[in-house]
Write a sequence for this structure.
């Protein structure tokens, strides 16, 4: 039986390709609202980030998340992402 291909996405923090299931997705909806996409299927422009503090810090300080989503990142979205981080 043929193995399924695992979809890979680029983390905006560390710039590494990782399986889509391992990453957090932030989406800019068609209504221009930012949301953390828990399902990975919401419509809109998405950006992926590893669930690690170092990647989140790089993405925010380097404004990589803002550039990827073409919108300013609100403190509420940052807090929501921090709540979903995996502590290492």
């Amino acid at each position: 039986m043929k193995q399924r291909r695992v979809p890979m996405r680029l983390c905006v923090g560390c710039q590494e390709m990782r399986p889509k299931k391992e990453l957090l997705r932030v989406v800019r909806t068609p209504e221009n609202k930012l949301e953390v996409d828990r399902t990975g299927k919401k419509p809109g422009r998405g950006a992926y980030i590893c669930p690690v503090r170092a990647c989140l810090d790089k993405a925010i300080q380097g404004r990589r998340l803002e550039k990827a989503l073409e919108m300013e990142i609100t403190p509420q979205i940052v807090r929501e992402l921090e709540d979903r981080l995996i502590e290492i």
Observations:
- The chain has one domain: 8-83.
- Residues 8-83 form a domain with the Hypothetical Cytosolic Protein; Chain: A; fold (CATH 3.30.1230.10).
